[in-house]
Amino acid sequence: MTENHTALYGEHQKAGASFTDFGGWQMPLKYSSELAEHHAVRNAAGLFDLSHMGEVWVSGPDAAAFLDYALAGKLSAVAVGKAKYSLICNADGGIIDDLISYRRSDDKYLVVPNAGNAATVAALLAERAAGFDVRVQDVSGETSLIAVQGPNAEAILLTLVPAGQHPLVKELKYYAAVEVGITVGGTVHELLLARTGYTGEDGFEIYLPNADAPALWQALLASGTAHGLIPAGLAARDSLRLEAGMPLYGNELSLDGHPYAAGLGPVVSLAKESDFVGRAALAAIKESGEGTTTGRKLVGLKGVGRRAARGHYPVLKDGVVIGEVTSGQPSPTLGYPVALAYVDVAHAEPGTLLDVDLRGKAEPFEVVALPFYRRQK
C-alpha cells in the first residue's frame, strides 16, 4: 500500500516522532511519551498534525439543498460562519463516515471527512451532486490542517494574530469558523480558523496550503513553548477523545452500524422536508426502536478494577456475552480504565454492573453516562 506523507512529515522526523500507518498515511504516533502529550493537552496545550483529514468544498446555488440530500443532517439550517457535525450514510442507513461541515457563505460549504474515508466521501459527494447546481471540489491533497488543543490554545493563537483581530479569536464560538490573519514565515496570511476540537478541551484548527504548513508549525511551537505547548501524536489524540466519549470511525462507527445504536439519533434530521440518502431505512430503524429499546447501543464503561478493556473484548452479564468493547484503555486523566462498548439495551442503564472478558478473566466494569471527562468551563 502506498504510504502518504503530510507536508509536516519532515517536522515530525526532526522532532523524533514514532510513526504509524493511519488510513494509508504515515502519521506521528508519539514524539516522546504519549502520557506526557495527553497531560499537556489537558493542562496546557498540544500541537497536532491533522493534514491526513479530507477537505471538500461544495459551492453553488444548490449547495445547501444538495447537502441536505447528501448528508443525514439539515445543513441548510446552519448559519454562515457556523459548523455542524453530521453523517453520510448509504441507502441502508449504514454510516459511511462522520464529518464536520462549515458554512462559509450562503452557497459555499467546507466538508471535512476522516482520513481513511476522504476519497470515498469526495467521490460520493460528486456522484450525489447529479441534478444539483453545485460544484464539488476535493482539495485534500493541497490542504494542511494543524490543531492547537488545550486550555492555553487561545493564548498561543493570539501571539500569531494581529492585535486588531484578537476579538475574532476570543469571540469565536464552539463549532464555528472565521478567517483571520496568522503569521506564517514572517508574513501575515488570511487563513481559516475553526474551533471544533476532538479532545474534550478548548482548541483551534487551522486550514492552510501545504507550502505554508512547516513555517506555521515552527511558529506555533516557538510561540507556544512559554505556554507549555508540545507536539502530540495520534496515541494522545485517541486517549483524549476516548475520555471525552467521542466516537472514532472504524471503532464505534461503521457501515455495519447505524446512528441510533451509536447514540447519534439527534444528528439525523427526519424532520427536514427534503429526501436524503438513507432516509427511508433510518426512519424504519427509528420506528423499530433498534438501538434504543431493542438490539445493542453504545455505552461508556468505567473499570471497577485496574485492568483495561480493549477493542473486541466480549462484555458479559452473569457469564453470558451481551456486548463487545469498541475502544478501551486506562484513562490518564481519571486514573481508572474506561471503554466504549455496544451492549444489549437491557443492560445499558448507568449503574449496571457488567464484566469484560480480559483474555479469559472476567474483570468488573460499570456502565456510566458519557462523557467520562468534561472540562471545566
Structure notes:
This protein has 3 domains: 9-50 and 142-243, Probable tRNA modification gtpase trme, domain 1 (Gyrase A, domain 2); 56-126 and 258-291, 2-Layer Sandwich (Alpha-Beta Plaits); 295-377, Beta Barrel (Elongation Factor Tu (Ef-tu), domain 3), CATH 2.40.30. 21% of the residues lie in helices and 33% in strands. The protein has helices at 9-14, 34-43, 63-70, 118-128, 153-158, 166-170, 213-224, 234-243, 279-288; strands at residues 18-22, 25-30, 45-49, 56-59, 83-89, 95-105, 108-112, 135-138, 143-149, 177-184, 187-194, 203-209, 229-231, 296-303, 314-317, 320-330, 337-344, 353-358, 361-368. Strand 5 (83-89) and strand 6 form a beta hairpin. It starts with 8 loop residues before the first helix and ends in a 9-residue tail after the last strand. Residues 296-373 form the Aminomethyltransferase C-terminal domain.
Average residue pLDDT = 97
CATH architecture title of the largest domain:
2-Layer Sandwich
Order of helices and strands: HEEHEEHEEEHEEHHEEEHEHHEEEEEE
Described by strand count, sense and barrel closure, the largest sheet is: 6 strands, mixed
Helix content: 10-25%
CATH level-4 homologous superfamily of the largest domain: Probable tRNA modification gtpase trme, domain 1
CATH top level of the largest domain?
Alpha Beta
Write out the strand line-up for the largest beta sheet, numbering strands in chain order: 10-11-12-9-3-13
Low-pLDDT sequence parts: none
Distance between the termini: 44 Å
Number of helices: 9
Query: Radius of gyration, Cα only, in angstroms?
Result: 21 Å
Q: What is the CATH fold-level name of the largest domain?
A: Gyrase A, domain 2
Q: Which secondary-structure class do the elements indicate?
A: alpha+beta
**Residue share in β-strands:** 25-35%
Number of beta-strand segments: 19
User: What is the domain tally?
Assistant: 3
The gross shape turns out to be: globular
